[in-house]
Amino acid sequence: MDVERETDIFDVTIIGGGPVGLFSAFYCGMRELKTKVIESAAELGGKVAFYPDKVLHDIGGVAAVTGAGLIGQVVRQGTMFGPDIVLGQRVEGLRRREDGIFELVCAGGETHWTRTVILAIGNGVFVPRKLEQPGAERFEGVNLHYSVDSLDRFRDRNVLISGGGNSAIDWANTIEPIAAKLTVVHRRTQFAGHESGVTKLLNSSAAVMTPYWLKEVHGDGGRVRRAIVEQTETGETFEMEVDEVLVNHGIRGDLGGLANWGLAFEEERIVVDARMETNIPGIFAAGDVTSHPGKLKLIAGGFMEGPMAVNSAKAYLDPDRKVEQIYSTHHEKLIAMRR
Ligand SMILES: Cc1cc2nc3c(=O)[nH]c(=O)nc-3n(C[C@H](O)[C@H](O)[C@H](O)COP(=O)(O)OP(=O)(O)OC[C@H]3O[C@@H](n4cnc5c(N)ncnc54)[C@H](O)[C@@H]3O)c2cc1C
């Protein structure tokens, strides 16, 4: 879409559908702001989606909640006022029109129009840690994988999995019954995954090599044919034939194009003032991504910063009106929803 209609312009666009982005969306609803949330992943929840079974005890007023339980609650709360939710789009570019409207451009070319932006992007988009071997990327998507798109490709194959966390262990236990042969290499002697998963793996037919790391992959015709693994203590190397390689070395955050918007950063965090304002007027930030004196990198801290960013966006949009304190207990729409 090249030309937007007035109805396509939002008061606030929140980038990031983690707990802080979702709570901010709720608070935007409280402030009657037309709101959109853009999340690059296919699901809402942010980092919390990586620990669904862990129990959190440090959310104020909530004695204990699992990660999955918290996501359920923040999704319910964040969607109460019906914001537009866009999933699977990664915001990369920023343009500003003469009338002050921001154009947010996504990696797939989609454009979103907004009067203000709240960045609730955590550490950025999660991307897998890849092999550092130069040239290894030529095998990607053929038989070198960083995620599993189809289990069937491992059926009756000679599979190598590198990694020792929950994800690697889970995939190893899933693939082991269908693979012709499975080898798991991990650079430490101890696995970091859940005990039950590790026990299951160690009792399976998989060949488990620790402490070894996947040093190199070699092949021809775009396919990996051989892998070289190295004993991390002795340096002894071992070469093996492989049909499929799955690398599960964890994830890292990637700010992508947002790093070039002209925002002020401090150790990869966006510098904000006491009102959650960034150095670009109309752009605010909240949650893990912010840097300010007294920063508390907890969900509870982000839950305070989100409403502060929303109040600042409201004041920016309507500078002549004082942003009054509001309580959810007194909110007409919420009272009506409860009836
Ligand atoms: C194992 C583990 C345990 C933890 N335990 C606790 C705990 O007990 N208590 C606690 O308070 N905290 C805990 N944390 C930290 C907590 O998860 C984070 O503080 C919280 O998730 C931050 O929320 P957020 O919304 O700021 O960012 P995130 O949860 O990181 O969400 C950011 C979202 O933005 C999206 N995004 C990023 N860039 C873009 C883009 N360009 N376009 C579109 N979308 C984008 C990402 O995909 C992501 O979904 C834990 C963290 C881990 C890893």
Walk me through the structure.
This protein folds into 2 domains: 6-126 and 252-338, 3-Layer(bba) Sandwich (FAD/NAD(P)-binding domain); 130-249, 3-Layer(bba) Sandwich (FAD/NAD(P)-binding domain), CATH 3.50.50.60. Helices cover 20% and strands 29% of the residues. By secondary structure, it is of the alpha/beta class. It has 6 helices and 22 strands. The strands form 6 sheets. Strands 1, 2, 5, 6, 7, 8 and 21 form a 7-stranded mixed sheet that branches. The chain binds flavin-adenine dinucleotide (FAD). The site of flavin-adenine dinucleotide has 37 residues, from helix 1, strand 2, strand 9 and helix 5. Residues 15-21, 38-41, 46-48, 50-51, 54, 56, 58, 90-91, 120-126, 256, 258, 287-288, 297-300, 302 line the site of flavin-adenine dinucleotide.
